[in-house]
């Protein structure tokens, strides 16, 4: 009987009370020793800092009328981490405010659609440490020489900021020539201050002043952290990241297993959907409210190319989308975990009943809640003791910040609720309610299941910055084992109560310590949410002297239905073109394309070929690949060896990349003819290059050599050195002479260019210089305000880099980025369409699984084939990952991370394909089952013809696009000539073939979705046309900036939709093979022909091999189809 508390219950409650008292004693006494907080003197509130900042600006003559204001608490997290890691919290506290002024109130005054804005940073103790006046590039001002500007900067430092120049050492200068003024930046360091590290360089405190024209436009002070220390710290953190991502992989395996079992439970109608919708609904509401509540904080990051209406609309829509995604995820976890928990924990109260009135009135609820709250106190004490001991043995973790931006929001308690709710539900459902019974059934050992689930859950937290990298994983794993035992003994309720309360408590600490009564009261209610039903349960028991008997509420009383016996799905396959519009014909008789239709199709394609009568604009560029990656690598090795570089110590990777600047071409085409707009490309600027990167893991130094892809001319040399590498201390004049000589060596004429930007920086072991040249206004390559730009970096006396680009006017770039409410709405219409389709398909999928109309054997096979092709292509392209390899991370850690990413991506691809294929197979029953040798034989002639015809049509369509771009360059985006794909892969042909096969296999999926929505959801042709026009108009309107751009984009989309519709209804119809072969032949022919066009013999051979393999596969299909049928299905 469980209607009254017995002695055992009283003993348990007393033990819980004792544990709570002891734990709270330990926790409250030692908490801030185990989890120290950074020392922040909030002498000024945010509003007081605003008044001080505004007063500073007004004294400098700025009128803040008409400006919007936003503010946040700000600090340099990198500097904080560096100081705490090197000096400890006590040593860091000694430097804070003297001289390292870290804690700041950042204030910003801005206007929408206006570049000019003002920023001021005031420390929490009232010192001004930052100021910036953002001006448009075109704003007028004086042109001071560097000495005059430096004198003005020094006056500002001494008179306005109160610094003594005798204690400052000048280290850096920069001069930038704007269209109507000169800007200068000067940097000093505090000469009698440095933070020593184990490396070569030490951290220094710096002061930077910006002079715009003849006015001070900015001031900043910051801690300069040695580059070597940052690299070493990143290397150390990579172990955390690798450990965390490996644990995340096992969580992904858990989600996959959950998804597989969920399908079975849905089929058995064993999912409690009301519970799923309740949990998902709570998640949606809390997440949406938390995102809206954060708007006052996000306004600080407002982009001034937006309007406020656009910003608010975008923020609300993003909040809605994020809340919906989070709700779907929690709904999935609830639906997947609850049935298995109900099946294996039969003697526990059902989750569906646990929080209802009857569930709250049970003794189990009272005991479970008490245990959960006791676990909260015990967990605080456990963490305190664990980290106090760990610290004795050298463990480290960053100090907490006693401030959260949520105190500047209207309903901060909703964040407390969300941070308590989300981890509690997601992690307990995944790692306890599902993982323990699942692993127990798999391994047949309950305690092994508890141990493994705790280890996976624990080390999924290893990404936190605590060191050594495993310390956080061990701490959480040990707690997970204890929580697992509690779940086995008392069910999931104590774990949910504990997890919610502990996360809510840690989140609410800042509110609980606030002087604001509203904050304290709302936070206390949010943290103590589980106390409310406990108090109600205690009061009810005290009044009635008994609990409700839980017998009818147990999981054993909520048993699963008897699994339905499998039965074949009804057959209702697609018919010919009539079934595109009406799916009622149950027969499957394929009618070949009539001769008349073939004639019309051929005539149409031939008429479209009229575009070849007109010559393309000769200014349009083409790419001719004249060398391979191996040849570029050999050329790079030879060049480096000639320079005396030991190449054997480097790892190298070659990759092809386009240098095309679409925005620059668009601007220049708007202001000149196409020939002038494209003239620099291929001469001064590369269209595409082969780049070869030489690097050594653990070393900063690396080389990247870029070669013109057509004629193997050396185009760019990029040499990276560590800050501490020794070099010459050249004057600006001597460095400029080296830079001019380097430009000349690359065929450029410095005398025809204007020097626009000069910068120098004094490092510990050398002096670095940067020079930037631009073509003058009267230069043949300058069009309106666009300029060719050359940026050159010299380290010591060695050239490090020469970068070429096209400089565009800032005002034009801002206009292109400008967003309005109308543009935001248009941008979200296609997203809303996509979201609605996904939700609708999810609803249909669940219904199809419940009805047993999905037969999973074929989808699993096809999904496995698709995932295998994806993995093969992924592995073949692995060299490309080395392009982005950060050398401060050990190669082993990088390999682990990339390997896990590959596995995750493959699993996702496979599951997505299986799900989509299974769903579509249920929408068009017996379609997959009807695919056999005989049907392929019937389809094959039309499929081959349509594949060839569609390939020709695509080539003609591409020609039309090029012709249109030539005659309307200011309205049609010029994406530049295409570069053959997969050039850097191990075997480019292999990637091309797998992509063609994958695309061919996936083509019918999209067609099936289109047919389904056209014939069974929308149905009426007029509504289909309206929906498409709305979709196309919204897409065009969101990206177009002129009426011609809009109408051309809309017209192109509408025309393509009409062509596809005609092809679908009158030609392809229900010929599944035709869709597959059309994509396969298109990709094979285009890709192979693209390689055959190149000058490189190696690429020509690859193109020929690709064409040969593609033809052989088609021939094999033809021969297989012509053989007598021995088995019906493939």
Any key phrases for this structure?
single chain; alpha+beta; 4 domains; 12-stranded antiparallel beta sheet
Give structural notes:
By secondary structure, this protein is an alpha+beta fold. It has 4 domains: 46-225, no CATH class; 240-387 and 400-557, no CATH class; 629-815, no CATH class; 930-1130, no CATH class. Helices cover 57% and strands 12% of the residues. A 12-stranded antiparallel beta sheet has the order 1-2-3-4-8-7-6-5-13-14-15-16, covered by helices on one side. The protein has a 4-stranded antiparallel beta sheet with strand order 9-10-11-12, covered by helices on one side. Helix 5 (227-267) packs across helix 13 (446-459) and helix 5 (227-267) packs parallel to helix 27 (891-923). The two termini are 61 Å apart.
Number of structurally distinct domains: 4
Shape: globular
In the predicted model, the low-confidence regions spanning at least 5 consecutive residues are: 568-587
Q: What's the assembly state of these chains?
A: single chain
Terminal CA distance reads 61 Å
Mean pLDDT: 91
- Number of H/I helices: 33
How do the strands line up in the largest sheet? 1-2-3-4-8-7-6-5-13-14-15-16
Beta-strand segment tally: 16
Structural class call reads alpha+beta
Please give a quick description of this structure.
The chain has 1130 residues and is an alpha+beta fold. It has 4 domains: 46-225, no CATH class; 240-387 and 400-557, no CATH class; 629-815, no CATH class; 930-1130, no CATH class. It is 57% helix and 12% strand.
């Amino acid at each position: 009987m469980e209607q009254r508390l017995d002695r055992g219950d009283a003993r348990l409650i007393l033990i819980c009370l004792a544990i709570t008292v002891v734990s709270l004693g330990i926790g409250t006494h030692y908490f801030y020793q185990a989890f120290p907080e950074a020392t922040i003197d909030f002498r000024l509130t945010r509003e007081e800092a605003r008044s001080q900042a505004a007063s500073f600006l007004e004294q400098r003559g700025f009128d803040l009328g008409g400006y919007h204001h936003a503010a946040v608490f700000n600090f340099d997290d990198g500097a904080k981490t560096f100081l705490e890691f090197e000096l400890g919290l006590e040593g860091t506290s000694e430097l804070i405010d003297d001289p390292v002024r870290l804690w700041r109130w950042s204030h910003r005054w801005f206007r929408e659609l206006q570049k000019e804005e003002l920023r001021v940073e005031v420390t929490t103790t009232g010192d001004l440490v930052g100021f910036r006046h953002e001006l448009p590039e075109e704003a007028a001002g004086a042109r001071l020489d560097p000495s005059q500007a430096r004198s003005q900067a020094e006056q500002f430092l001494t008179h306005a900021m109160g610094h003594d120049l005798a204690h400052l050492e000048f280290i850096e200068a920069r001069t930038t020539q704007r269209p109507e003024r000169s800007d200068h930046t000067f940097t000093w360091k505090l000469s009698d201050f440095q933070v020593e590290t184990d490396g070569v360089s030490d951290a220094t405190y710096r002061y930077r002043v910006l002079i715009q024209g003849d006015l001070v436009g900015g001031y900043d002070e910051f801690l300069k952290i040695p580059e070597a220390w940052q690299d070493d710290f990143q290397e150390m953190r990579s172990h955390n990241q690798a450990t965390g991502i490996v644990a995340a992989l096992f969580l992904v395996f858990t989600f996959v297993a959950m998804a597989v079992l969920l399908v079975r439970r849905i089929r058995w109608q064993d999912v409690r959907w009301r519970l799923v919708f309740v949990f998902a609904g709570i998640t949606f509401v809390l997440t949406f409210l938390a995102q809206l509540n954060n708007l006052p904080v996000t306004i600080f990051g407002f982009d001034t190319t937006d309007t406020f209406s656009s910003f608010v609309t975008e923020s609300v829509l993003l909040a809605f989308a994020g809340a919906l995604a989070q709700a779907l995820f929690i709904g999935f976890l609830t639906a997947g975990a609850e049935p298995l928990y109900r099946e294996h924990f039969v003697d526990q109260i059902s989750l569906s009943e646990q929080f209802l009135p009857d569930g709250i009135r049970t003794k189990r609820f009272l005991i479970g809640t008490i245990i959960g709250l006791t676990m909260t106190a015990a967990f605080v004490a456990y963490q305190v003791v664990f980290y106090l001991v760990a610290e004795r043995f050298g463990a480290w973790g960053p100090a907490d910040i006693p401030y959260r931006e949520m105190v500047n929001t209207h309903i901060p308690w909703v964040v407390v609720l969300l941070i308590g709710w989300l981890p509690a539900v997601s992690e307990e459902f995944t790692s306890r309610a599902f993982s323990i019974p699942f692993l127990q059934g798999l391994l047949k050992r309950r305690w092994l299941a508890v141990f493994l689930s705790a280890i996976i859950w624990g080390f999924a937290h290893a990404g936190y910055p605590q060191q050594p990298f495993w310390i956080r994983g061990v701490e959480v794993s040990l707690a997970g084992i204890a929580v697992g035992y509690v779940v086995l003994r008392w069910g999931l309720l104590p774990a949910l109560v504990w997890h919610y309360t502990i996360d809510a408590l840690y989140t609410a600490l800042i509110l609980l310590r606030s002087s604001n009564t509203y904050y304290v009261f709302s936070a206390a209610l949010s943290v103590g949410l589980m106390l409310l039903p406990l108090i109600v349960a205690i009061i009810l028991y005290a009044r009635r002297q008994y609990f409700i008997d839980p017998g009818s509420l147990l999981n054993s009383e909520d048993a699963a239905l008897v699994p339905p016996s499998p039965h074949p799905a009804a057959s209702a396959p697609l018919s010919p073109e009539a079934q595109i519009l009406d799916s009622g014909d149950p027969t499957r008789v394929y009618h070949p394309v009539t001769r008349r239709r073939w004639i019309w199709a051929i005539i149409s394609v031939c008429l479209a070929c009229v575009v070849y009568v007109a010559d393309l604009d000769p200014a349009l560029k083409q790419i001719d690949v004249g060398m391979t990656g191996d040849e570029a690598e050999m050329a790079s090795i030879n060049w480096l060896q000639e320079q005396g570089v030991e190449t054997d110590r480097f790892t190298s990777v070659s990759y092809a990349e386009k240098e095309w600047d679409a925005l620059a071409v668009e601007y220049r085409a708007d202001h000149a003819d196409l020939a002038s707009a494209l003239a620099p490309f291929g001469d001064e600027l590369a269209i595409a290059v082969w780049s070869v990167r030489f690097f050594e893991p653990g070393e900063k130094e690396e080389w990247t050599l870029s070669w013109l892809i057509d004629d193997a001319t050396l185009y760019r040399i990029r040499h990276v050195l560590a800050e501490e590498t020794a070099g010459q201390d050249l004057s600006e004049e001597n460095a400029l002479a080296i830079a001019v000589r380097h430009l000349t060596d690359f065929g450029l004429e410095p005398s025809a260019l204007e020097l626009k930007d000069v910068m120098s920086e004094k490092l510990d072991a050398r002096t670095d210089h940067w020079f930037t040249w631009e073509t003058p206004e009267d230069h043949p390559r300058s069009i309106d305000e666009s300029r060719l730009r050359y940026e050159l970096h010299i380290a010591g006396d060695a050239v490090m880099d020469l970068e070429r680009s096209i400089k565009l006017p800032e005002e034009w770039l801002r206009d292109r980025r400008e967003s309005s409410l109308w543009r935001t709405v248009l941008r979200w219409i296609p997203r809303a369409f996509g979201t609605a389709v996904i939700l609708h398909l999810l609803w249909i999928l669940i219904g199809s699984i419940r009805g047993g109309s999905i037969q999973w054997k074929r989808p699993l096979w096809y999904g496995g084939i698709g995932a295998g092709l994806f993995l093969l292509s992924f592995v073949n392209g692995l060299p490309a990952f080395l392009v982005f390899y950060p050398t401060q991370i050990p190669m082993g850690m990088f390999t682990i991370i990339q390997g896990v990413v590959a596995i995750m991506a493959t699993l996702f691809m496979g599951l997505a394909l299986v799900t989509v294929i299974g769903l579509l197979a249920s929408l068009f029953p017996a379609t997959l089952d009807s695919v056999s040798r005989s049907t392929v034989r019937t389809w094959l002639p039309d499929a081959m013809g349509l594949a060839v015809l569609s390939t020709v049509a695509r080539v003609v369509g591409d020609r039309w696009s090029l012709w249109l771009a030539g005659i309307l360059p200011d309205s049609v985006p010029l994406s530049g000539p295409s570069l053959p794909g997969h050039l850097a892969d191990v075997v480019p042909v292999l990637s091309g073939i797998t992509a063609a096969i994958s695309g061919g296999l996936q083509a019918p999926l999209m067609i099936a979705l289109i047919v389904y929505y056209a014939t069974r959801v929308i149905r009426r042709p007029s509504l289909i046309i309206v929906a498409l026009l709305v979709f196309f108009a919204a897409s065009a309107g969101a990206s177009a900036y002129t009426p011609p751009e809009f109408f051309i984009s809309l017209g192109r989309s509408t025309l393509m939709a009409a062509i596809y519709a005609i092809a679908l209804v009158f030609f392809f119809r229900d010929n599944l093979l035709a869709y597959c072969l059309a994509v396969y032949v298109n990709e094979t022919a285009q890709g192979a022909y693209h390689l055959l066009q190149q000058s490189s013999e190696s690429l020509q051979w690859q193109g020929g091999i690709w064409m040969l393999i593609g033809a052989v596969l088609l021939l094999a299909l033809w021969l297989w189809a012509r053989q007598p049928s021995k088995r019906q299905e493939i």
